[in-house]
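Human: I would love a firmer grasp of how sequence relates to backbone shape in proteins. Take your time, and here it is.
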Amino acid sequence: MSTQPIYLSKERLAELEAELNELVTKGRAEIARKIAEARSHGDLRENSDYDAAKEEQGLLELRISKIQATLSRARTVEPGDYPADKVYILAKVKLKNKKTDTIVEYILVSEEEADFEKNKIAVNSPLGRALLGKAVGDIATVKVPAGVTEYEILAISR
């Protein structure tokens, strides 16, 4: 298990803490209720409801453990912690794909917060690594399975 810090925004930290609280209080109580109900059906050797409830309990405990491990290594970062003229974590970056002339915007976040559907990419992704430390006007070169893609940095905001 890694001991590297996990950098999170305050919002993501609060989300994880709320999820952990929900799982520990309501989640565990619900699983205990399901197990008790399944036990009341008799012989546990051939009780599929009991097996399903125990499986669900294992998955719940795994999620709780994962969140606790993440929170134990979490460090919060603020957009103002880094210079605004270069790309760092929590920067919103407007890019132009040099091949297709399409414009895209991404927010660089930790791996824990990455969500491509929300245009949040991890700083340790190939594109994220290529962008780190760059300024407006710089070209970021990214190796992708189809070859090499170049992005021009049009704007950086926090």
